[in-house]
Amino acid sequence: MSSMDPEMLIKRSLDQQISRDLLKKAMMGQWNEVVEIYKKEAWTHKEKITRSGETALHIAVSDGQKEIVKELIEVIKSQTDDQNHAKEAVSVENKQGNTALHLAASKKEPSMCKSIAEVNSSLVGCRNHEGETPFFLAAFHGKKRAFLCLHQICAKTNQVGYYYSARKDGNTTLHCAINGEHFDLAYQIIHLYPDLANWANKKGLYPLHILAAKPSAFRSGKPLGAIWHRAIYNRIVVDELKPELQPDLEDDIPNNHPRRELTGFVNPFSWKHMFACLVPKPRGTNGTGEGIHDDDELDHYTYPTTVIDINLSREYYSGTHHDHGGIFSRFFKFAYSKTMWIISWSMVITSWFLYIFTSQFMGMLLLPFGIKGYSRRRRMEHAIRSSYYVKQKHTWAVQIMNILLERTTDLYQAGFETWANVGEHGDRINDHESNERSRAEGVSLADQDRETPILTAAKYGVIEMVERILELYPIAIYDVTSVTNKNIVLLAVEKRQIHVYQLLLQKTIPRDSVFGHVDEDGNSALHLAANLPPNTPGMIPGLQMLWEIKWYQFVKDSMPPYFFPLHNKENKTPIEMFTKNHRKLVRSGGKWLSRTSNSSSVVATLIASVAFATATTIPGGLTQDCGTTMYGNQPAFSIFAISSLLAVFFSVASVVMFFTLISSHYEARDFSSNLPKKLLMSLMTLFIGITSLLISFCVAHFFLLQDKQNNEAWVLYAVVVASVIYLTIKNSSVFLNLMRVTFSDVPERLYEDDV
Predict the structure, then answer these.
(1) What is the pTM of this model?
(2) Which of 160, 283, 463, 612 is deepest in the core (most CB within 10 A)?
């Protein structure tokens, strides 16, 4: 035995050297050498060469080397006569319990999943230390083609995908697909595994809850932005999702496929593509005039061949319409379609030219100031792309919502207390078993403040879901949270969801029981409106205080006097709560107003001094004969006199008004209208003073060039004034927001990206 020790040490040393070389070549990307080592040394197929316990196959999969993975799999299958060798080689787990198939499921190449799973199909259901299967991870990472590939493998081996669809926390593939906003994948999961719509995780959340907590996935959840974004968005037509029974195992897409042509197709400065973008294709053609008899060949891809489509009558272009009303009816339809066509064209082209002026022309004018404009083509192409994907997400989210509402039958048929749950291995468990498991983890399911999907949707402001649930299940209006006893009205008021509250006001519902409902602490809707939300978007304090007052007053005026209960269980009234909760915000708003007034008063004082000096300086001086102005008979002199006088008047008025704001006493009631209106008037007078001073300067400068290049001078002055106005409007978001909030009776909805 002792005589063998040197040989064993030498062999071990050689094996370690081979293992180090294998790791080095894999890290350096020298995959051909890795394949050669696999061919020569069969023991390396199972060798863990990294600290995290990964083999060379793991590294190749992580690096996305699909061709190398195929070669390594072929080498593994052909090197030994042992039938179990290949299965054991692909079943090696790293320290997280992930096999190579776990990593392949997280990639976008389904061919790697197919190559590995063909060696050992049971790996589809192999769980890592988090209880995740490759089948689950494909959905978690939103890899639709990999998921469909693994689904086919499950079907071939008569294995039910339900058992592989959940992990330890009870989240299923459908939960994860919706949470990641992979709605195309979520649709396929619902189609293949419809029962997952009725499965809840350990927190008692259905997939519908997850969707309700995604306000950005719906049209009501986020503003569309500039006018051209809204114009493009409104003209986009997105195809609805369809089942995809066959996965796309080919990683390379033909160059002439519309999916490849999308980049060039949305080029807005190609007039051919623009026209194709705006006018819909006739139904039954593929855009080139050739007929299509079977849509299945294109169902496979989710990208449409057209991006923007005018809402014309498809029957009229398809040739399948029928004459039911004679020549008058046909003429009316034709005239209506042409009128809508002209209106749509006008909207898009007008928005287009507005965009070109603001981004390109004004960008060129502002180059001397160091402001660089974006590429016109890139900006417009990005606008079309982003609008398309936003519209696609919104359309698919509504489609998923409607399907889930059709399939989620447990909520209102069996009652709110019969929540299902999912075990670690995909088995469904009841509330008692879930409470036992949760209690072992220190949290009882009964202690969680559970809510139905309509309450979650109301809390996040998803109006589409709230309205749809009320249409299907009117009884849902009486849903309350399990612990705090808050209904849909209280949650909408507490979370400042104005659109939801307005929607409920328009509904024919029992107001006494719904709007007069109180929570566990006896708080009414008006009490909750008096609270200051902890997660308010980053508004400036003055605007936020004004918004809070508007919201409180709106809720109070929405119901008759003395409708809401006056005292809660702590014997506090809404106005007492409002004063106490907003005390700190009033101080912050006062400090912001003081700083703004101080800074603006300095500017206004400088403008007033310059304006006064300009007004007392007569262009050209006086004549020696009669002492009259030299240019008094010219219209330009009248413009100079009026503009300089206006500059002095408005700048001095602005200084006085800012001093009034500085010396004001800041209280909560003053933010309702008094202080905001004073600030608006001060800023407005300052802006008018600056504009008048600029006009007087240009007119005075005109007299210096009156004998030469008059036309060019006027163009120069127009450019200067337009540039200043553009810069002012571009950077006047605070002023515009202040004006909008001050003069609106209903406060606007706050979004997460509002500033």
Answers:
(1) 0.75
(2) 463
Give backbone dihedrals phi and psi of 748, rounded to 5 degrees, phi first: -75, 155
How many CA atoms, within 13 angstroms, populate the side-chain half-sphere of residue 648? Answer: 12
Instruction: Determine phi and psi for 667, rounding to 5 degrees.
Output: -130, 165
Q: Which distant-in-sequence residues (6+ apart) come within 8 Å of 700 by Cβ?
A: 614, 617, 619, 640
Distances 602 to 3, 277, 615, 695, 717 between C-alpha atoms, Å: 96, 53, 20, 21, 27
Question: In whole angstroms, what is the distance from residue 419 CA to residue 410 CA?
Answer: 8
pLDDT at 3 exceeding the cut of 70: no
Note whether 639 and 672 are within 8 A (CB).
no
Whether 395 shows a pLDDT value over 70: the answer reads: yes
- The full DSSP string for 592-621 is HHHHHHHHHHHHHHHHHHHHHHHHTSPTT-
CA distance 545 to 741: 11
Phi-psi region of 552 (alpha: psi -120 to 50; beta: other; left: phi over 0): alpha
Which DSSP category does 253 fall into? P
CA nearest to 651, candidates 622, 692, 614, 696: 692
Residues across the chain: 755
Distance (Å, whole) CA 494 – CA 552:
11
d(CA 544, CA 734): 12
The alpha-helical segments, DSSP class H, found in 408-515 are 410-413, 431-440, 453-460, 463-472, 488-494, 498-506, 511-514
Q: What top-level class would CATH report for the domain 593-742? A: mainly alpha
CATH of domain 21-164: 1.25.40.20
> How far apart are alpha carbons 639 and 699 in whole angstroms?
7
Single-letter residue type at 722: A
688-726, pLDDT tens digit by residue?
888 888 888 877 777 666 655 556 666 777 777 777 777
How far is 670 from 664, CA to CA, in rounded Å?
9
Between CA 97 and CA 56 the distance in angstroms is 16
